[in-house]
Design the sequence.
């Protein structure tokens, strides 16, 4: 008996598949290919027909070895793709450690430009946006990339309007995602544009991811970067702030705890987290509050106290200044606690 996906819709008369070419190269990040491919694959399964046809293409047609050591099967070489008369809809340009080795490869740049003229959309995933920029295609356009590539991107391609805190950007036919799993966010947005919100939501549920992730990638980059602090004392301080957000973390108290001056502490925080000490504390409290609001039915005033804001008004100001939304509205929009959902009608 044929397997039927629980969310599968009644198949429509098959329409021509949207053809997606995926650039492959050695040391490509596996997730940059697998994430978008899985979104398209899940869409095909739920729709009941192949709405998307995927092909991996490499310079010489050889199978690329990913950063994991696993090999991905290749469908075409640059030469066969150029010679083909077939229409293509999208090209996916992934990133990974191998980007640096081909960043100045004229053959790769020429192929990306060639495929840009033959497709309706260019999806640059993670550091793949550097390859698209190197081909001269992002000049004057908005783009993003992995947060760790921020300095490199802005130094090499200053003519690009880098928006490094964005999960993804769209500027005409050019779409870029931030680091690694953000490629899934971008592909879900493309799926929603192609087939509507319901299918995109069904695919997001199947993959157990958010359809629209809230906030920018700085919410991930700063705390993670703090884990690799420049010295052990600072690393302990960063961890303590995140573990005890309700403590009175004044700059002087933080400096005293690690035996340094406030000025030296400020320089260390900026170096390690790209945030001032006060901003880092505020970001930690905001992240903790968001987690409570998303996953529990805890009252707003209790969330404020647990997250270290002290009172609901202080937390409200922080949410409005940084997220443009009140804590109550945030909980209504993004909360997943079933008891909270049941009580919303009485709020």
Sequence:
């Amino acid at each position: 008996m044929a397997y039927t996906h629980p969310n599968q819709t009644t198949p429509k008369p098959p329409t021509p598949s949207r053809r997606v070419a995926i650039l492959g190269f050695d040391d490509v990040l596996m997730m940059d290919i697998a994430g978008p491919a899985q979104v398209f694959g899940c869409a095909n399964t739920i729709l009941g027909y192949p709405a998307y046809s995927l092909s991996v293409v490499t310079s010489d047609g050889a199978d690329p070895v990913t950063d994991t050591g696993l090999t991905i099967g290749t469908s075409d070489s640059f030469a066969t793709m150029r010679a083909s008369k077939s229409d293509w809809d999208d090209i996916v340009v992934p990133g990974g450690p191998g980007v640096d080795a081909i960043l100045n490869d004229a053959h790769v740049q020429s192929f990306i430009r060639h495929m840009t003229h033959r497709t309706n959309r260019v999806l640059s995933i993670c550091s793949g946006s550097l390859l698209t920029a190197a081909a001269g295609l992002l000049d004057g356009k908005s783009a993003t990339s992995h947060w760790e590539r921020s300095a490199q991107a802005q130094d090499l391609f200053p003519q690009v309007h880098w928006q490094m805190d964005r999960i993804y950007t769209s500027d005409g036919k050019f779409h870029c995602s931030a680091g690694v799993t953000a490629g899934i966010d971008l592909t879900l947005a493309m799926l929603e544009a192609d087939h509507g919100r319901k299918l995109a939501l069904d695919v997001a549920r199947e993959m157990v991811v958010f359809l629209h992730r809230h906030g920018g990638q700085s919410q991930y980059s700063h705390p993670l970067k703090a884990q690799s602090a420049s010295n052990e004392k600072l690393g302990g301080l960063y961890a303590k702030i995140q573990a005890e957000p309700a403590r009175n973390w004044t700059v002087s108290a933080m400096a005293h705890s690690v035996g340094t001056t406030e000025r030296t502490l400020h320089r260390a925080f900026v170096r390690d987290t790209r945030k001032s000490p006060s901003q880092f504390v505020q970001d930690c409290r905001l992240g903790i509050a968001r987690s409570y609001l998303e996953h529990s039915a805890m009252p707003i005033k209790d969330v404020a106290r647990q997250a270290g804001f002290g009172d609901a008004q202080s937390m409200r100001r922080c949410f409005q200044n940084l997220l443009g939304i009140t804590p109550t509205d945030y909980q209504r929009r993004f909360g997943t606690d079933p008891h909270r959902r049941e009580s919303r009608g009485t709020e």
User: Anything to note?
Assistant: The domain at 18-207 is CATH 3.40.50.880 (Rossmann fold).
